[in-house]
Design goal:
two-stranded antiparallel sheet, alpha+beta, Beta-lactamase
Length: 271
Amino acid sequence: MQLAKENKLSIDDDIYKYFPDFKDSSIAKKITIHHLLTHSSGLPDIRNVQGDSAFFLTAKDEENWAPIKKADSLEFQPGERFNYSNPAFNGLALIIEKVAGMKWQEYIKKNIMEPAGMETSTITDGPYPESGVSHGYLFDGKNYFEKDYGEEPTFAAAGNGGVWSSVNELWKYEQAIQKNIFLDSVWTNRSRTVYNFSNWKDNVPPFIGLCWFITKTNNENMIGHTGSQGGFRADYVWLPERKIFYVILCNTPKPLGAIRSKVLAVALKEE
């Protein structure tokens, strides 16, 4: 969005402009950056993760995006419905690199983390930091076992989940968004406004802005995102009317929805 505001790209650009090596150019010419940002591209995730898990243990953004460029069909036409796509964000990271002329990790550090005062946050480019971070674990019914870099295929790809941060620094990030430190108010508001697709065919109404999920939780309007990777779970919630910010970062499996509801019930009662 910063690059779009600076007229260095348009979120309505088709991705063929940035990836002319797509096997089927007609597919790439249908899909825009906006579709990638809203998980509405229709691109299938055709990575052979199970069949070649050894390769994907160390595969970074380029290697995770490469199989997607070989798609010869779509799951649905772009803009018709929502289907969460991790590879789409590997592709978006690569677009940043092509336009900004630097590693996308460097771009985010310079233009997001430093202005927000996120002094210890980082983004991986291969192995994650050796100190100052938690490891992720899963539970097999008897024992916990490590499941992150080196154990979880696709974990080395950073565009879809390589940010290492803390609750305190994510609050700094949220405050910077609200103060329009990264973007002007027009772009900030646009990112957090549900986009109504003209050709939407999903049974569920649109609920996504530019990356942000805009829904309700505990009967309150919510802007946020949740996700998991290996043995990690995360939940990021901002209730704009209540001015309540809630984040949970877990390195073990947790029922995020249930925890969120209980915590926010207490917060709303105590408000």
